[in-house]
């Protein structure tokens, strides 16, 4: 699929656990690339204040649908999903998708990603699903300085994975959205 000159360029930022600094870093990076960034808040409008306690009130599927609605609003041309959660719920196939996740991410196990790839491959799909797995990387691998345990799970910044994921996003947008 070739690039489309003049197309809207954007990335939907959908990750409840990211810090404000990480969202800001991604927004600044995308602006430098000529893109627009939109942060989707699936929790606040539903009066959910603690993501970890109220995750059942806002399921991964609901968050995924929120992201797609935001994408439609922005006349989506391409989508990127960082560590999409368990299970990675991607229902629509109307845009190219780049999926980035850490091999040691307990919320996005490899077998679930394999199921997603199989689901995406069914039928005559004209849009690419590109999956990039980072060995020894946890969820939130691109949050600089992170190294902590939360509710029995370890989260840690991975410089190599973070740097490569940034380049993967840049190349993905260049491919589908042009320079």
Short overview:
Helix content is 32%, strand content 18%. The chain contains four helices and seven strands, in the order E-H-E-H-E-E-H-E-E-E-H.
What is the 3D form? globular
Taking the alpha carbons of the first and last residues, their distance comes to 15 Å
CATH secondary-structure class: Alpha Beta
Q: How many distinct helices?
A: 4
Low-confidence stretches: 1-10
Main sheet summary: 3 strands, parallel
- What is the element string, with H for helices and E for strands? EHEHEEHEEEH
The name CATH uses for the topology is: Rossmann fold
Percent helix, as a range, is 25-40%
Q: Enumerate the strands of the largest sheet in spatial order, edge to edge or round the barrel.
A: 3-4-5
Radius of gyration: 16 Å
How would you describe this protein?
There is one protein chain. The chain is an alpha/beta fold and 179 residues long. It has one domain (10-177): Rossmann fold. The chain is 32% helix and 18% strand. The chain has 4 helices and 7 strands. It has helices at 20-32, 60-73, 110-121, 159-177; strands at residues 10-13, 36-39, 79-82, 97-102, 129-134, 147-150, 153-156. The chain has a 3-stranded parallel β-sheet with strand order 3-4-5, with helices on both faces. The longest helix has 19 residues, at 159-177. It is globular and about 40 Å long.
